[in-house]
């Protein structure tokens, strides 16, 4: 994006050449010489540890070592903060001081790609309860000709859920309980 610069590079090659691509606004790209640089001054008490992976980082701010513009204490590897940004999505903030606005704008300017979606831990199916009803027969031997996933609203292939946990189900006909029983409990419960 520097008008006087004649350098060109492939977008996938940019990180290897320490070039910066900004993934917002005009989606500008900068070569290693004209890229934006952080204007952070190191604090004498800085312990030079990445705030994310806890490995050692360089003493000075560079392409590979970045810092928080809000608290000036956080230091991290570029690849660590990029990984955090990809998982955090719209909840991206400094891992030390939790500043969001100043920190996010600085990271976007420095070429950190930030997806516009909820954090990965909020969309993880195992991390939150499912709003979908259990839909398969868990009997040791399923007798249904349509298979374990087949279920009907009434009749012998009606799927009964465990009356205690509702995490397991069984076709009404599979355990041969007949029409007389209207509840069922799984072996776990």
TrEMBL record:
Renumbered residue ranges of the record's region Disordered: 116-135
Keywords of this entry: Ligase, Metal-binding, Zinc, Zinc-finger
Domain PHD-type: 1-35
GO CC terms, sorted: nucleus
Domain of life: Eukaryota
Residues that span the membrane, as ranges: none
InterPro entries: EPHD (IPR034732), PHD-type_Zinc_Finger (IPR051188), PHD_PHF7/G2E3-like (IPR059102), Znf_FYVE_PHD (IPR011011), Znf_RING (IPR001841), Znf_RING/FYVE/PHD (IPR013083)
GO molecular function, one term: ligase activity
Record-linked SUPFAM superfamilies: FYVE/PHD zinc finger (SSF57903)
Domain RING-type span(s) in chain numbering: 50-97
Full protein name: G2E3 ligase
